[in-house]
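The material for today's practical consists of a large collection of protein records. A record pairs a protein's sequence with a compact description of its fold. Instead of coordinates, the fold is spelled out as a row of discrete tokens. We will come back to this pairing of sequence and fold again and again. Here is such a record, shown just as it appears in the course material.
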Amino acid sequence: MRQILRGYLEPYTSVERDNLGSLVTRKGGEGGRDKPKIMLAAHMDEIGFMVTRITPEGHLRFQTIGGWWDNVLLAQRVVIKTKSGDVPGVIGSKPPHILEEEERKKVIPSKDMFIDIGATSEAMAKEAGVRPGDPVVPWSPFSAMKQASVFQGKAFDDRLGCAGLVEVVRQLGNEKHPNIVFAVGTVQEEVGTRGAATSAWVVNPDVAVILEVGIAQDVPGMKESEIELHMGQGPALFLYDATMIPNLKLRDLFIDTAEKLGIPLQFSAMPRGGTDGGKIHVHTSGVPSVVLGVPVRYIHSHTGIFHMDDLRNMVRLVIGAIERLDAKTVQSVIEA
């Protein structure tokens, strides 16, 4: 993923990396190096798994990496990334046909699951190149759906944020903006927002904008009064999450920018979970921050669904805000 993102960014800006692996780019604006520094952050990692043990029968025991719901795992296809190349597999468990009736009613925990690569012995699994510690990723090809501008695929959390980074940098082009924009692809967000902490030291930003996904809730079983985010009705601005409350003046700047540009905007309050903003906004003496997200159905599963207009409008909103974040405005945000 890092190689792919680097390839998309390099035509428009120089790309560096920190010692943990996050990518850091710098897009100079109008004026000198004393201009305010705007950090755009999106994480490159996805939730996945790690091989922890190979059984004598050749099955792979695994550890989840990031927040999985055990209900969505069984019978899903995966790829083990080995030193010898990709090895396909499927997540299995004890067959339901031989379970007692009470057992069949219970959710099977991931610790009782395994990955089947078709091997019948530990030696065969090792011959395929599998080792304990190898990363495992979901297999779910990206594809268009019948509805216009709607797509399905894996790891939209947070590949959509990464796509947003690329589009912002590309569309800024040689346009002058009253700040310096740092587009950062972070690592290890799903296991503790670790790359956000290290890359913030590289950038030392004045303001941060985190590009993420939101949880689209427009699905059967939800009451209309409970739904915050609808797919296709605009990007989300996070009012609250378990790790960060946005700077209110910066929040208002984004709301005002959306209204000025005619961009539909939704709002989300997430009592559980967090984003890279949780680490970035407490960097050094504090960084005014805000989180935007593309609504996605079924995040943290093998396959999500999103509407391209939501991504396009998030990019428009970020660019519109960048154009307004001059030194005086940033200072007023910091002092708010």
Notes: The domain at 49-138 is CATH 2.40.30.40 (Elongation Factor Tu (Ef-tu); domain 3). The chain has a mean pLDDT of 94.
